[in-house]
Amino acid sequence: MEYIIKNGIVFDPLNRIDGEKMDICIKDGVIVESVSKDAKEIDASGCVVMPGGIDSHTHIAGPKVNTGRLMRPEDSYRDIYYKKGLKPGTGFSIPSTYKTGYQYCEMGYTTVIEAAMPPLKAKHVHDEFVDTPQIDKGALTLFGNNWIVMKYLKEKEYELCAAYVAWVLRNVKGFAIKIVNPAGTEAWGWGKNVHGLDDPAPYFGITGREIVRGLCKVNEMLGLPHSIHVHPNDLGHPGNWRTTIETMGCVKNMEPKPKYGNRETVYYNTHVQFHSYGGTSWKDFVSKGVEIAEYVNKVDHVMIDVGQITLDETTTMTADGPMEYDLHMSTGNKWANCDVELETGSGVVPFYYSPKGPVYSVQWAIGLEIFLNTDPSKVILATDHPNGGPFTRFPRIIAWLMSKKYRDYWLNEKVHKWARTRSSVGDNDKEYTMYEIAQITRANQAKVLGLSPERGHLGVGAIADIAIYEIAPEEKDPKIIERAFRYTKYTFKRGEIVVKDGNIVKEIFGDTIYVDVKIDETLEKEMMKDLEEVFKKNYTVQIENYKVSDHLANSWKVIQIDSSEIT
Amino acid sequence: MEIILTLKEDITVPVELDALLPEKIDNMDVEEIKNIKIPQGRTTVKVGELFDVEIRESDTPKMTIKNSSIKLKRVGEGMTTGEIVIEGDVGMHVGAEMKGGRIVVNGNADNWAGRGMKGGELVIKGNAGNYVGSAYRGGYWGMSGGTIVIEGNAGHEIGEYMTGGKIHIKGNVGYFAGIHAKGGLIVIDGDVPGRLGAEMIKGAIVVNGKVSEILPSFKYKGIVENPVIKIKKKDEGTKIEGVYHMFAGDYVNNKPKGQLYISVDRNPHLG
């Protein structure tokens, strides 16, 4: 099928196209130079054309999302998706799989990365991916509190650790290395937590710093497309901004060596809003968003996503087990908790960020402060769905960023006065341009994930994932902005129209992306000797049952990497 | 204006009546009311198909349901003013989330009577089911204001997640009365089998009947006479006549402020 998208105003930051009126040609699912006369014409005059959106950090599949759905029937009643010809779905903050796929697609998003997959529970993640339509998916794999990783790093056996990471990614079909509260989630297995980068995990005696540095080294040895993806220690604690900067700083001398993609950074700090808190308690709690933004602007090795609070009732879920316990104790709300054998843990707690709450209002302001002060080529729009708020609120965040007037309306009329007195959001006049919105919603993600060779841009050869929004580039009315980014005029997935005028018109099933790294055979054999012993001794499953089999995806997109030079 | 709805014959498939609030239909004529669509099971029917409709003069918006059945659900849900009188039994969610006005049920009510109620008055002359004044499944928004009076017995888990208002049960109740309560007052004149006030943080429960046992996570505070119960700091207090064992809890929570008052006369085994 051939299409030509005519007269749209194109924003494609990876190709430095800033609001140019041009035609886009599509043939057989990819973007091409020109098409034949038979091509179907799509009139995009008066519309903004962007590459398909990418969410680099979201929680949409797997055991903890499912636990959230089970423990929150009340979330189910709040939002019911029922459209003719489509699978019905429910859930506002933790939508069911089909609803997730449809709603991302309605917003023009085409690739989404699940941010926390415990290797042992990978089958559950992939099984839900199979039932998530319209988008391509990938899963960050949890390694930060893994016993085998900690043991190898403690003994400084980086090659063996690299072989192990490669083996896990290949066998559980994972996309990149995720680190959550390094040493802290393991400490939670002992009823404890760590309170900084240099506190050791019980028994293993390894610190967060050694884990972050070690896995960063392993990541670059293997040449993975994405950098290490880190959720540092002390999430949500006043005064944690120092730990955040220290963690970012601890890998500053490392060099990016991706064997696929064009990444230039070695460290991805996720939901940095939760890690930018000043003060010593909730009473003298202040924003340190500007300090974090200044640090990120100054260095070359860091990329951040924000984890913007949207002031909704939502469901928090993270592999940071001790943090969820704290949240449960402070709110008295229901709580689920899980220990994943040798690998990680997790917790789930429903949470209401009330606009009237002083602390929540400051959290909201911190996120915006980070957006407004960071170089737009280094910051990514995400809500850490559903932790900061559901992904369906992205359009509202875009409206806050594009309209100073709208931001001030919220600041003065809707939220607690602490947001004004304890942050600098009210003093900042920056308004995001359409080009910058395209950077923080697709281009930056594509580049940092290492997917920019074929995604996140509209150059010839790219996958034809395209979003067309019915909005003028200089529009300032928040209502129009919100509406336009919530429902696209057209969404193209792989060169096919899947959304038209905000309605899903075609159901398609995307790829699951994973990384297959080839490792030196003798090294792998040596590692397998250790691993087989661990499985025999400590795991409740056999090694053969651990692997994710090939049928657990609609289609696999494999990124092949050869790292057999590591010996 | 008073609207009188008479159920023509007994129904088997439940009907939802939340569209028929007295304030909503106050200025309609008989034909308009007959044409209102209401859900019955998985289909929709018109009011006129199930009910005879009659209008009478009245100063306040009023609705009377005659020949009522336990299959009529969500009667008076979300009402803010006026009065509803139900002759016969009524189904689930009667008076749910009501903010004002008055509902009288001259019969029994099914589960979730007064669920998440915010204001107004709900009187049930017969018995009520489980979850009187509670939150709905999974939720944590119980009754926050208003008054519920049940002249008969009530089921389990009444006043779950209650944060304000008053529930008065003149008969007996089931297990877990006042579970997760964060405020409000529950008065029970009859007997309680146990697990009273489990995980309550704030609020008070008064029992004039027999309580077979108190949860071990409550602390005994001694005997009080004619107590004045204060729930909030600025509360004037509710005066209760009688001699009571007082307990505080539930100490499974941090710094709980829940209060239990258990009749001394009927419970010599406590204390």
TrEMBL record, chain A:
Molecular-function GO term, any one: formylmethanofuran dehydrogenase activity
Pfam family, any one: Amidohydro_3
SUPFAM superfamilies: Composite domain of metallo-dependent hydrolases (SSF51338), Metallo-dependent hydrolases (SSF51556)
Domain Amidohydrolase: 40-499
Entry keyword Iron: no
Keyword Signal set for record: no
Keyword vocabulary terms for this entry: Oxidoreductase
EC number(s) stated in the UniProt entry for this protein: 1.2.7.12
Entries under PANTHER family matching the protein: COLLAPSIN RESPONSE MEDIATOR PROTEIN, HYDRANTOINASE/DIHYDROPYRIMIDINASE FAMILY MEMBER
Protein name: Formylmethanofuran dehydrogenase subunit A
Record organism: Methanofervidicoccus abyssi
Automatic annotation (TrEMBL), chain B:
GO molecular function term, any single one: transition metal ion binding
Entry keyword Repeat: yes
Listed pathway(s): One-carbon metabolism; methanogenesis from CO(2); 5,10-methenyl-5,6,7,8-tetrahydromethanopterin from CO(2): step 1/3
GO biological process: methanogenesis, from carbon dioxide
Superkingdom of this protein's organism: Archaea
Class in the EC hierarchy, top level: oxidoreductase
The reaction(s) this protein catalyses: N-formylmethanofuran + 2 oxidized [2Fe-2S]-[ferredoxin] + H2O = methanofuran + 2 reduced [2Fe-2S]-[ferredoxin] + CO2 + H(+)
InterPro entries: FMH_DH_FwdC, Formylmethanofuran_DH_suC, Glu_synth_asu_C_sf
Keywords, comma-separated and alphabetical: Methanogenesis, Oxidoreductase, Repeat
Entry's EC annotation: 1.2.7.12
Family as reported in the entry's similarity comment: Belongs to the FwdC/FmdC family.
Name under which the protein is recorded: Tungsten-containing formylmethanofuran dehydrogenase 2 subunit C
